[in-house]
Amino acid sequence: VKDFTSLKFVIDAISDVREAESWIENDFLSVFQRYEVLEKYLPPECMTKMEMDNKAILRVSWQRLLDKVEEVRDTVHQLQQPFEQSLLQNVEVFKKDVSDFKQEYDVEGPMVVGLNPIDAMTRLSKFDRKFDTLQRKYELYSSGEKLFGLPQTNYPVIHEIKGQLESLKCLYGVYQDVLTTMDEYK
């Protein structure tokens, strides 16, 4: 486990095994009960040696998987504390990054009053790229908070700017289409 993403993957895999455990146990019980009936009422030569071996291995393999899941769960539990501390530090830095981005967006972004459309499109492209980085971090840190059962940090600025950028991309996309169409008719 190297980072939050791999930790989340491991924890999700453990959860998947735990969720499947009860219905798999029920299926095993049903299968083994049927084997008992077959063994009780049919002659031994009706079941092949390979089938008998597979039946014996099935339970052992499942138990090995459960033991491995438990071992990994214990390891993950030991690793959680450093990852949680790192997440909390990263969230604090991210709050400042969001605030700095908002300030820069308001002063130098595509919605500055008096900006001509070409400059606004250039700025839109620049801030859209920067926002994509913020959005990825937001998703990573939010999933980390959820993973550790921490309160979800709210970033209304991210949602606000995301909406603005999407609207501006639509608007300037139409503007660009109009310019292209006008150039074609010249």
TrEMBL record:
InterPro entries: DHC. GO terms for molecular function: dynein intermediate chain binding; dynein light intermediate chain binding. It comes from the Eukaryota. GO terms for biological process: microtubule-based movement. Transmembrane segments: none annotated. GO terms for cellular component: axonemal dynein complex. Belongs to the dynein heavy chain family. This is Dynein, axonemal, heavy chain 5-like protein. It comes from Reticulomyxa filosa.
